[in-house]
Design a protein that fits this description.
The protein is mostly helical and 183 residues long. It starts with a helix and ends with a helix. 70% of the residues lie in helices and 8% in strands. The relative contact order is 0.11.
Length: 183
Amino acid sequence: MFSKTMTILVGIIEQQPVNAYELNKWLTTMNVREWYNIASSTVYATLKAAEKKGYITGSIEKSGNMPDKTVYTVTDRGRQEFMDTITGYLSDFDYDITPFHIGMFFINALDKQMAVNLLGARVRLLQKYSLEIEKQTGKMEGGQVPQIYVLNTRQSLYIVQAQLKGAEEILEELSYELQNVAE
């Protein structure tokens, strides 16, 4: 599974071959740096690591009097790892919601039916978590547990419920789009 940074960079390269400078411009244009901090130096280091691992390849391009630039494309190995990572990001739950945001950024890389299936799995998982946390909170209330622990557990419940509501809405929209394509 890719790191968050590598997922974002490979996802952009997957959409179109780009050089490091263009990648940095994309991160700004897509406002990625507003919700996930990726320094320009990290972009260059991550590209080198991805190339070393065989996830991307760089080819030197010359344009007129401009300096040479390395344009990156995704390899088959990189594409497979990217798809595996996106699949995990969309179906799994973590209190750090950044992976889900990254997955949603690149959801169009997946077949719509696959995206619907993954989000359905996420909804079921979040429903299960919600029920379990509600039970846990119920057992804690009125017991010997300090109130601050009860409130902290409730906070976890609110996070899960917010994620569940968002995932249900996205799933509903994707299901609607899939149904309209089929008709």
